[in-house]
Every structure is written in C-alpha cells, then in structure tokens.
Task: structure prediction
Amino acid sequence: MHSPEHEERCLLYEAGELGAAQAAAFERVLAGCEDCRAFMAGIKESHRLCGAARLSPSLELDERVLARLAPSERDTRAGLPAGRPWRAMGMSLAFAGAAALVLMSRWDFVPGEELEWTGSIETRIAAAQDEMEAVSESVAPGYDADIEGDIETLERSADELEDLWRERG
Amino acid sequence: MEDSDEGLVERARSGDTGAFKAMIESHGPRLYSFLVGRLRSREAAEDAYAEAWMRVWKGLPAYRSRGKFLPWLFTIAHRLSLDVLERESRRPTLSMDAMPADEGLAPSERFPSGEPGPEREAMGRQAAARVRLVLDALPEEQRQVFLLREFGGLTFAQIADVMDCPLSTALARMRYAVLKLREELEEFHA
Result:
C-alpha cells in the first residue's frame, strides 16, 4: 500500500539516513511497491537533472573572493591573530592612552603622592578602557579600521601625554 | 564532508589561503548553484557567494564542528540568502524567468552534458533551463529544502536543523518538490 509516508521513507533511504534494520525493512517494502519504486526513480532523476543544472562560479568571481582575503593574510603572517584581535589591541592601547590623558588633566598634581594614587588611577584607567571598548563595540560592531589608524591615535596620545608631563614637571 | 576536506579546513583555520582556495574550488559550484537557485539573480548570487566565503574565512577560527563543514557553509548561505531576499523584497527583483537560459553565461558556467555532442549538449542546456524554471515556480519552503538537499548535499536532519523545522516537515516539502519536478520534467527523464 503506497502512501506519503512511504515516499518520505524513500527520501530517507536514498539519502542513507535510515539505520541498517530500517533500511532492510524498507527494501522489503520497496520490492513489493511499484509506486515506491517509481518515486525512487523520480528522486534519482532529480539528482541527474540538478547535476545538469549545476552552475560553476566564474574564475573571476573566485579570484575576487581570494583577493579580499589579502589584508587578513598579512596579519596572520606576522604571527598575530588575523583581523580583529590585533586591531582591538591597538584600539585598547589608544583608549588607555586617551583615558590616562583625561585623568591626568583633571588631577591636581602634588609631587610625592605617586605611591598613593598609582593603584587608584590604574583601576580607573582599566575601567575607562573597558567602558570605551564597550561603547566602541556597540556603536560600530564590525568596524574595520586600518591598524595604522589605531597606531597613529596611540602615538598622538603618547605625545600629548608627554607634553603634559613636561608642562607639569 | 570527507576527512580529507577536514584537513583543508584545519589548514585554512590557521590562515593558509591555498587551503581556502582548494575549499572554494571544491564546494564553490554547489554553493553558487544553491545561491542562484535561492536568489534567482546571477548578480545577487555572485555578491552573496563572495560574502558567504568571507564569512566562512572570518568564522573559521571559531569553527569547531569537525565533519560538519558543509552544513555550516550552507547555514551561512541560507541565512545570507534570507537577508538578501528581505532586502530585495523592498525593490523589484530580477527573476530567472526573465533570464534566457544561456544568455551571458561564461564558458565555465555552461551546463555540462553527460556526453559530448551538440545535440546532447543542447538537450542538457534545455533540461537545465527547465529545471530552473520549475524550481523557480516551487513554493519558497519547498525550494529551500530541495536546494539544500540537491546542491548543498545536506541530510534531511541537517536541513531540518538549518531551517529550524521538524524533520517530517522537511521531508514533506522535499516530497512535494520531487513530485513536481517529476511531473514537469517527464520529457527529460532518462
């Protein structure tokens, strides 16, 4: 007796998704069910016709894909993780520098107090850094800036910090 | 995915673009055919194809499922195609109905025929064009299942997982699609 369930069994059988016992049982059904065999033939015809309808991407398209990998490959060759982690490290350093700059500009410097404020300011820098990273991630997820830009920001921050130290010192 | 392919995935994970290129060569035609079938626009399929491989490349460091590369690849492609279709639904689309079977195809995109010979080749092209038309006319869910099975090579359990539906639903959709193809393409049956 042919039924939709039999046809679904045909699909699973043909896809190799029946267990050994189930497959053996279905083979017995198949032997006595002409409509099941016709449906099975229909599945095989679908494979054949879809094989004929399969398209290949052009070589240019594949080359386009591979060309887009180049910047990430450069990061990997340098022995660093590809893409984001390296960029994130640069951004973190830049943010840390900027946060330090902000905190320094607000702090009324008194010589001899270094030991007292060191622990506190480190904690505040770390908190500011975490906050800046969270803001950066929520504002621009997947932001793909060039690492050179991050490094420039970091260098600028360092220069400004140095100038400030000079002014105060 | 075969064990040998898994080696390519491992190499690509560590940044080996040669291995990644081999993966593209191996699975590119399946992926491209799937996307053309899903998006019904060569241009949209090409963009989605490039984007899908970029997502794979970026996602490889986090890829952990050994032996499940194809389902992963086609899950990416499936989701990507849903996004594209969502965007495209807001503007007129280019239908494969309007695209002559062979017009503008590069030599590498011509349909392979089983055996050499102009008649056989013409027959193959004609059948391929008809297959695409029939697929185009299938209800969306049936077409998705059919393409994931025929071009993606996914099992029905994997298809049910990708489409977030019960196995019985995936099977029923495939059954209707096979019956429709059989009915519409009877003249091309071997």
Summary: Residues 108 and 168 of chain A are 10 Å apart (CA to CA). The radius of gyration of chain A is 33 Å. Helices of chain A lie at 4-14, 20-31, 34-53, 59-67, 70-77, 84-106, 114-139, 147-168.
